[in-house]
Amino acid sequence: MDTQRIGTLVFLAIGLGLFAGVTLMVRSSNAFHARAIPVSGVVLEVADFRNQTGDLSYRVIFEWTAPDGQKRQSNLYAQTEDAYSVGEKLSLLIDPQSPDAPPVGAGRGNLWLAVGILGILGVGFAGIAIKVMLRR
Hints:
About 45% of the residues lie in helices and about 30% in strands.
């Protein structure tokens, strides 16, 4: 088997692997959103700190009410100070299968960004492989 054919197969495998990753991400997200319970939260504090690389980041401490009525606190991290403000209401989702896990935001923006990037890379790798295979 020549080097070009091996390279083409590797590109095709990478492209198909990326498509499989996108499929798993979407299915996992859909399953989570189907079983998730919405809860509300409120931002208690926004504190700045230096992360491991020395860049300024912000730790957002928020309180949320679990379905059992208990108030709990969790935190998340932001890159900009104005991403959240004290007293801001948050729409969150919790996983009833993991009630002690911190809640996640109700939006799907980050998922679709990741899906889009992986999908574009998958199309690129598979497209190059198919183009090379058709030229032979």
